[in-house]
Amino acid sequence: MREALFIKKNKDRWLKNQQQPSDDPDEMAADFTQLVDDLAYAKTFYPSGKVTGFINSEASKIYLDIYKNRKEESNRLITFWKYDLPLTIRKHHKVVLFAFIFFLIFFIIGFFTSAKDEGVARSIFGDGYVDDTQENIAKGNPFGVYEHGNAFLSWISLMIHNIRVSFLLFVSGIFCGIPSLYLSIQNAVMLGTFDQFFTARGFGVDFWLVVFVHGTLEITGIILASAAGLVLGKSFLFPGTARRIDAFKQGAKDGVKIMIGLLPVFALAAFFEGFITRLYNDISILTTLIFVLSVLFVVWYFIIYPIRLGKKLLLQLNEEEV
After folding, report:
1. Closest Cα partner for 223 from 288, 170, 144?
2. Between 20 and 30 A from 63 (CA), which of 6, 141, 188, 309?
3. How far apart are CA 301 and CA 57, in angstroms?
4. By three-state DSSP, how is residue 94 classified?
């Protein structure tokens, strides 16, 4: 059978599976079985055809749904953290990578722009903050700003602020993702300027070891929230073969999953900033350890684990196919 005839014969069923997926386990299993048969046929006669890649993708989606149902546990939160969120992150890794590179570019721009004009820091942070920090540096306590205020109240206020900013990044993605990018630029330039302010005064390494005690999780959350906004905008602008409204609903669903997953990340980042960062003078080994562990957690949970989980499920898919 020619590839064009094969596509014409099965196209309606494939589109129905894609646009109107069933929630019934038996129907899902039946759809999966048919797709596996189609995939075996396509791999045999059209191994390099686009239709083969399309069928494999659709079969993988259904299999992942079946797999998650099979792995359903009594505690729904465990399932979410162990499977749902990592698989959603994996699904949108390219968008997350774009959001990271975009943030990094404007971080660098902020760093070098403020290096040429010290007025940039004052325009962003205000004269009061800059003057107080310079005074702290003269006293030999450059990050003394983190030692001020009540630790508990700082934790709560910072957590609320960061969550509010992150949801603004996400929700604004409905406008084609442009506001999400703009807000990302603001945060990246601010961080780059902040880094340069201390680097120019000989505290470049200290900046990372102190500020990123809480900043590792906080900035990761900001980048992922920006990515969630881009997922929302992308799903509407580029629906692919699905109906625009269906693609948008799926994009919104994925974005919400990411945002829910970021809530404890921002809560923990705020806790570190309120309670731990201020200890950098007294217990530097603790703050350095938390910085290192935070980096390892981010790299593992948001990059390595989703990739490994995705590969594991695809391997099981191929075994089911055989």
Report:
1. 170
2. 6
3. 24
4. helix
